[in-house]
Amino acid sequence: DHAVLVKIHDQLVNEPVSMVWASANFLEITNVGVTKLSGLQALAKTWHTDVQDFVAFGDYENDLAMIEGVGYGVAMSNAIPEVKQVANTVVDNHDHAGVGRTLKALLAN
């Protein structure tokens, strides 16, 4: 329920947590500094590589840092405008195989 999530958000706004919307009805609450990008950075460190070597797909506010921080950020066609603005490209959404077709094209190159 969006209204309930807004109340939770408003109650926690001054707490030492990070909050980001993943959709109108999904609020991610994490420790400060924990994002999808920070997860990819940890993975890159383990793999002895860099997130600039990564491709990431996203559509909502919780994907912004990740799309902006990887080497090739891809926004889905149903993404919010902010995600589309920071992405390298925009592709069809998951209902139209956007991820699969994009990965196939990238791997062919």
Task: Tell me what you see in this structure.
- With 109 residues, the protein is of the alpha/beta class.
- The protein has five helices and five strands, in the order H-E-E-H-E-H-E-H-E-H.
- The longest helix is centred in the first third of the chain and has 11 residues, at 2-12.
- The protein starts with a helix and ends with a helix.
- The model has no long low-confidence stretch (mean pLDDT 94).
Quickly list its features:
109 residues; alpha/beta; 5 strands; 41% helix; two-stranded antiparallel ribbon
What is the count of DSSP helices, taking H or I runs of 4+ residues? 5
Distance between the termini: 44 Å
- Please state the oligomeric state of the protein chains shown: single chain
Strand/helix succession: HEEHEHEHEH
Number of strands: 5
Alpha carbon gyration radius: 15 Å
Mean pLDDT: 94
Strand order of the largest sheet: 3-4-5
Give unreliable regions as ranges.
Answer: none
Determine the fraction of residues in helical runs and give it as a percent range: 40-55%
Overall geometry: flat
Largest sheet: 3 strands, parallel
Structural class: alpha/beta
* β-strand amount: 15-25%
